[in-house]
């Protein structure tokens, strides 16, 4: 019996030693991070809005941590190709993901994903948020949100609206607007924002929701008419334009956010360090000025708060997809 007790004691001590060694290893890796170059995956082509804002912020983070942060564009399947690469990467803090609201929508839009949206990623920090803007051609008779809704209800299914593709932010913002307004209209998905924008400006498309940064210069030049912003509050750069909620549509906001993620099992100390460095970068005057010009406003959140925000967005978008009867898509 004594021999068995001794063996059990030795086994317990050994297990405890292993656990302490693992904890010590994790703490050491967190304390030493970063020791070499960091790769950031942007799941869209270079020049995309998420790519642009991500580069601005991470360039400053790179200067702060003293290591190069290399941007790797891995476009495809609505951003899910790049996201999958990060999900499958080693959780050591050296492979990051910059994604957007499309990350939340992909969970419901695609029939099968090679990763678990909520279980395989650790939210680090939001980079910022910008409203999508409801626009029409100046030649259209619409002056207010009420004008669009009245026309749509007078001719059910005849009005049309553009998007940059099924599941894109422009699509979901329009669907949230349509569902909140209680009307039918024809969705015209284009291969990207350029074609959607062109068709809207010519008047062949009745209305379109697009991110503020892309819409602003065209609104200022009189090539588009802004009717509302799909956000919780008015934009500082379009203060005269009401929100869709102010126009009488509850639960109609669809803000377009950008944020930073790591693989789920990344040590929490590294998540916290990267969060703090990102917040510091966002506070730098040059960074703040540049992201403001890109249409973004700050979203200061802890990693835990951002994780909850992301989870709630995934759930809310799933409800919208169901309510709007948006067909699911195969990844390609």
Give a quick set of tags describing it.
single chain; 332 residues; alpha/beta; D-Maltodextrin-Binding Protein, domain 2; 2 domains; five-stranded mixed sheet; 11 helices; 10 strands; 46% helix; globular; disordered N terminus
Write the layout of secondary structure elements.
Blueprint: H1 2-32, E1 38-42, H2 49-65, E2 69-73, H3 80-87, E3 95-100, H4 101-109, E4 121-130, E5 132-136, H5 145-154, E6 160-163, H6 169-181, E7 186-189, H7 193-202, E8 207-211, H8 212-220, E9 225-230, E10 256-263, H9 268-283, H10 285-293, H11 303-324
Parallel strand pairs: 1-2, 1-3, 6-7, 6-8
Antiparallel strand pairs: 3-10, 4-10, 5-8, 5-9
CATH class of the largest domain: Alpha Beta
The class by helix and strand makeup works out as: alpha/beta
| CATH architecture title of the largest domain | 3-Layer(aba) Sandwich
Largest sheet, order of strands side by side? 2-1-3-10-4
Radius of gyration from the alpha-carbon trace, in angstroms: 23 Å
Output the helix-strand order.
Answer: HEHEHEHEEHEHEHEHEEHHH
Could you describe the largest sheet, including whether it forms a barrel?
5 strands, mixed
Q: What is the CATH topology assignment of the largest domain?
A: D-Maltodextrin-Binding Protein, domain 2
C-alpha geometry: globular
- Number of separate domains: 2
How far the N terminus sits from the C terminus, by CA atoms, comes to 64 Å
Mean pLDDT across residues:
91
Could you give me the name of the CATH homologous superfamily of the largest domain?
Bordetella uptake gene, domain 1
Strand element count: 10
